[in-house]
Known about the structure:
Blueprint: H1 14-37, H2 46-68, H3 79-95, H4 100-117
Amino acid sequence: MNGLSYDSIAADWWPYLFILLAGWLPTDVWRWLGVLSAGRFDENSPAIALARTIATSLVAAVIGRLILFPTGILADIPTAVRIGAVAGGFLAYLTLGRHTILAIVVAEIILLGVPWMLGLI
């Protein structure tokens, strides 16, 4: 077993098996355990409230990072436009009947339309 590593197996299928075993399986096991046990929890329990709070804060942190510290082509869009797109999407969410899809469409129109009108993209 002294040569057992990712590079030691020369089969063409090995990278796919590695992705399956190291990436998909550990994640999917927890998802299925959550699905199987979800009906047994009280939605108003403190543990579920804590889990929901942590999940929401992680999503908010990722969105904040994308807005304030973008990479790739998103970095070419000015920060003011990115913040304005989020604010416009949130305002659309509140004023258009709390429809998430409409809010996303408004934010995307702002995010792509303003730089296009300014000739930035």
